[in-house]
Amino acid sequence: MTYFAAALARHGSSWSGEEIQLDDVEDLDGVVEAVRHAVGDDVETALMLFEENDEWFGVVRIDDNGDPRVFVSDGRVLETSPVGGILGEAATVDDDDAVDVVDDEDSDDDEEEEEAIRAAGDPIGDADLLADLGVPGSRLLALCAEEGQLPADILSALCESAGCLEALEALRDT
């Protein structure tokens, strides 16, 4: 498995970053711990950007006073990647929280629909996690749907809008 994982932290109007290893991470708490270890605890916003094999990417946002928010570009990675499974599971929890289940019959329909989404490779999670950083959910989803876009290209576009492209490029150049 070839991947790139970066932890980026915003300090006021500037960003810093560190490349991180996620080989031993077992759950979302482990991802958050790896990010906090890399960037410190005294940041208002931290992002973990992950891309694997030029096939998919994931973003985890950790704010000072909230639960981590997750977005994954391709729901199929739940079954094909260890880190994708961790991020995808957290992303589907985010999706489940946004849906009110009325009864058990609807629940079965929701599970079938969720499986269809994963099979189709649609994005999962909180598409609005970067909205206040200049990337509304509609733009994030449009970038994911655009033919020929590599995950690295999409992450660069997201970082350019958020103001952290320089920090990301510095990590990629090392």
Q: What is this structure's SSE topology?
A:
Elements: E1 3-11, E2 14-19, H1 28-39, E3 45-52, E4 56-63, E5 69-72, H2 77-80, H3 82-97, H4 104-120, E6 124-125, H5 137-145, H6 151-162, H7 165-172
Antiparallel strand pairs: 1-2, 1-3, 3-4, 4-5, 5-6
Helix pairs in contact: 6-7
Structure overview:
- By secondary structure, the chain is α+β, with helices and mostly antiparallel strands.
- The protein has one domain.
- The chain contains 7 helices and 6 strands, in the order ββαβββαααβααα.
- The protein has a 6-stranded antiparallel sheet, with helices on both faces.
- α6 packs antiparallel against α7.
- About 5% of the residues have low confidence.
Shape estimate: globular
Indicate the radius of gyration in whole angstroms.
Answer: 16 Å
Straight-line distance between termini: 19 Å
- Main pleated sheet: 6 strands, antiparallel
Number of helices: 7
Strand content: 15-25%
Strand arrangement within the widest β-sheet reads 2-1-3-4-5-6
Number of domains: 1
Low-confidence runs of at least 5 consecutive residues: 97-104
DSSP strand tally: 6
Strand-and-helix sequence, N→C? EEHEEEHHHEHHH
Tell me, rounded to a whole number, the average pLDDT. Answer: 87
Instruction: Output the structural class.
Output: alpha+beta
Give the gist of this structure.
The protein has one domain. Helix content is 45%, strand content 21%. The protein has 7 helices and 6 strands.
